């Protein structure tokens, strides 16, 4: 049953912008268009910037994630949708997070973002709550938006996306023109729900899923009783952005495609296995999170190394999640048969695994079983569970189980020790059903710490040390103990410890390229700003640094991949007709980055106290950890800390090392705040806002209260 239908005039994209967004309120089924103003384009660019701006204007400091006024905003960006350069099909999703209470942004591939753009809109705002499950359908060729009552009983994404692709397509060929946003059954019962964005794989003749994973966005989606959002657009081609200089896009894309063709196999094998190529590399350098980040390697890592997944993942297919992406890293394991759960015995497609999934669902919970990782991966995706949060919170639960904080009675019979694949899968199935200990685990680590302390008498300080969350968000899957810069790359983020802001482990720990506090602070300024820029434009970051020009090592700043930075300057200018340089690119990001920081402050967060991190991210919490690297730690104490370890107990040595490392983090925080133009409490100053052109009255009003 159609609850509301809205007709709109088809427009024409001009230099990457439609100059309008689509607003839908599910409380009263109202639908309208909103102007995308010049201020929005100048200050917020698109994508994440548009999402944050729309959300800022929709909520108040008192708004909670499950209030009707909270929004889910899906936006792309001016460059999104081009087919000449790799990785140009990204969307950014923004909402108030159930986990953090702050604005959350998560990037995702698939066809939805470009199809939304070609259908006439630079962003989609979803506000209010429906009374019953609804499906939203946007037909970009007919100029029609419909809100309809859902008639679909199925709850999980791999089925929903197939049903709705079939429903809205006219025939087999037309299926490629449909993209569906959905979540799964677990998003109704947990705070870690994700969103799946579909694209139809014409070679496999089935829908594939890409994930906007972080922060519980899928939970908000289901709280609003949205079953799915689908968009259909026929007629994709390479000039729909109506760019200012099409030839510049063509020339820039050709340069990159040649690099992928000649260099990928020599560098990262993205076209064979995607991001899972680094599993054994992380293990080699003691960076692979193992047993809740206690260790950085394991003797059984070879069982989940990239070659094992290469053997299982279908080869020889161009696996891009948007047209024209020669990186083709969206890998899939075809005809996978789960051994447990409601889809036991059925053939399914597993997306990936990405590195994060292999590490989080593998080594971090002690599951060194390739097919076990794939099954966990499949169920996370279709149930709508963030794989990173699931892996990290399950690792926390397993350590608590091993320390007697949890037992079979408290977990309802689940023996959640490291390596118990069956228990990990059952925990996930419980989340999907809203039953048992799965309901508690699905609340996330921050809330579990409180429950375990209040109800089970656990030591709050120990829980704080080993609970790998910060700002309420679970850590992504890199071991940061030996990299102060990466500790800052996690702790000094806006949304929580996610590596998409700064991944500095190799620069800092392996290559020693940023030895001083000032060097680290500069890196923690530049790289978060540069990576933010991808999210403003609808771009994937992987083509930037997962393939590098052959002569990159001879450049002045090889870590920045300067030729690729210039590529991005060129494609932005080529689309928009502007004439920015690499310096203005960073300023564009600074505007949005500082805006998000102020948004956090407005919501009651975003200060220095919220940038504190669990000690497990800095150093050894337990004697077992210390002893596993005793030679390294003893040497550091003697040569760096000035503490003589000879004759001291492990506890004395750990205390001395902890004091030093926590002090180092505080000094790094000072240096980063200074470089970013913030106070020592982490508040952007009016002078900084004026310097970057963000001294908007509503922002100055917030910061003045906190100076």
From TrEMBL:
SUPFAM superfamilies: Aldehyde ferredoxin oxidoreductase, C-terminal domains (SSF48310), Aldehyde ferredoxin oxidoreductase, N-terminal domain (SSF56228)
Cofactor(s) recorded in Swiss-Prot or TrEMBL: [4Fe-4S] cluster; tungstopterin
Top-rank taxon: Bacteria
Record keywords, A-Z: 4Fe-4S, Iron, Iron-sulfur, Metal-binding, Oxidoreductase
All residue ranges annotated as the Aldehyde ferredoxin oxidoreductase N-terminal domain in the record: 17-237
Signal peptide: none
Presence of keyword Oxidoreductase: yes
Family to which this protein belongs: Belongs to the AOR/FOR family.
PANTHER family, alphabetized: ALDEHYDE FERREDOXIN OXIDOREDUCTASE, TUNGSTEN-CONTAINING GLYCERALDEHYDE-3-PHOSPHATE:FERREDOXIN OXIDOREDUCTASE
Protein name: Aldehyde ferredoxin oxidoreductase N-terminal domain-containing protein
Organism: Lutispora saccharofermentans
């Amino acid at each position: 049953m159609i609850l509301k239908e809205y007709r709109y005039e088809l427009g024409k994209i001009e230099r990457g912008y439609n100059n309008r967004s689509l607003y839908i309120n599910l409380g009263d089924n109202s639908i309208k268009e909103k102007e995308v103003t010049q201020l929005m384009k100048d200050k917020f660019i698109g994508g994440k910037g548009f999402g944050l701006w729309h959300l800022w204007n929709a909520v108040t400091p008192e708004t909670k994630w499950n209030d009707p006024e909270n929004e889910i905003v899906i936006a792309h960006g001016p460059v999104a949708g081009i087919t000449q350069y790799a990785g140009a099909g990204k969307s950014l999703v923004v909402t108030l997070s159930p986990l953090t209470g702050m604005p959350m942004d998560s990037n995702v591939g698939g066809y939805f973002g470009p199809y939304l753009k070609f259908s006439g809109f630079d962003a989609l705002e979803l506000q209010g709550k429906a009374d019953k499950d609804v499906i939203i359908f946007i037909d970009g060729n007919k100029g029609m938006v419909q809100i309809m009552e859902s008639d679909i009983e199925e709850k999980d994404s791999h089925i929903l996306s197939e049903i709705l692709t079939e429903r809205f397509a006219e025939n087999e060929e037309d299926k490629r023109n449909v993209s569906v946003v959905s979540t799964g059954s677990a998003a109704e019962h947990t705070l870690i729900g994700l969103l799946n964005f579909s694209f139809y794989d014409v070679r496999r003749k089935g829908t594939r899923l890409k994930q906007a994973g972080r922060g519980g966005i899928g939970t908000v989606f289901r709280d609003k009783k949205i079953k799915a959002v689908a968009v259909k657009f026929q007629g994709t081609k390479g000039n729909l952005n109506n760019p200012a200089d099409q030839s510049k896009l063509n020339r820039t894309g050709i340069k990159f495609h040649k690099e992928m063709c000649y260099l990928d196999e020599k560098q990262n094998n993205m076209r064979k296995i995607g991001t899972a190529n680094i599993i054994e590399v992380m293990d080699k350098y003691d960076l692979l999170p193992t047993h809740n980040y206690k260790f950085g390697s394991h003797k059984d890592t070879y069982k989940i190394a990239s070659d094992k997944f290469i053997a299982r993942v279908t080869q020889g297919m161009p696996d891009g999640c948007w047209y024209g992406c020669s990186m083709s890293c969206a890998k899939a394991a075809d005809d996978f048969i789960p051994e447990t759960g409601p889809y036991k015995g059925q053939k399914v497609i597993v997306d990936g695994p990405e590195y994060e999934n292999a590490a989080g669902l593998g080594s971090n919970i002690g599951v060194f079983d390739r097919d076990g990782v794939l099954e966990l991966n499949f169920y996370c995706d279709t149930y709508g569970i963030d794989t990173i949060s699931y892996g990290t919170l399950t690792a926390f639960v397993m350590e608590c189980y091993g320390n007697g904080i949890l037992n079979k009675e408290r977990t309802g019979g689940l023996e959640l020790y490291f390596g118990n694949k069956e228990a990990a899968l059952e925990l996930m199935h419980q989340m999907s059903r809203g039953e048992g200990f799965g309901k508690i685990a699905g609340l996330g680590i921050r809330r579990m710490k409180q429950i375990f302390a209040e109800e089970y008498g656990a030591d709050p300080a120990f829980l704080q040390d080993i609970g790998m969350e910060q700002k309420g968000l679970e850590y992504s899957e890199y071991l940061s103990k030996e990299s102060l810069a990466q500790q800052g790359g996690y702790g000094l983020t806006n949304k929580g410890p996610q590596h998409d802001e700064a991944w500095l482990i190799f620069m800092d720990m392996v290559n020693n390229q940023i030895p001083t506090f000032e060097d680290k602070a500069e890196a923690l300024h530049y790289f978060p700003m540069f990576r933010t820029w991808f999210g403003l434009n609808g771009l994937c970051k992987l083509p930037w640094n997962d393939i590098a020009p052959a002569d990159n090592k001879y450049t002045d700043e090889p870590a920045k991949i300067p030729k690729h930075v210039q590529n991005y300057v060129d494609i932005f200018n080529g689309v928009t007709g502007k004439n920015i340089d690499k310096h203005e690119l960073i300023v564009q990001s600074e505007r949005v980055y500082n805006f998000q920081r102020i948004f956090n402050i407005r919501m009651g967060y975003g200060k220095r106290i919220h940038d504190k991190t669990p000690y497990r991210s800095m150093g050894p919490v337990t004697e077992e950890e210390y002893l596993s690297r005793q030679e390294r730690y003893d040497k550091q104490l003697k040569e760096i800390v000035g503490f003589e370890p000879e004759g001291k107990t492990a506890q004395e040595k750990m205390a001395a090392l902890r004091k030093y490392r926590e002090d180092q983090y505080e000094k790094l925080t000072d240096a980063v705040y200074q470089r970013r133009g913030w106070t020592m409490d982490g508040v952007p100053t009016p002078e900084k806002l004026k310097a970057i052109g963000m001294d908007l009255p509503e922002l100055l009003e917030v910061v003045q209260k906190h100076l």
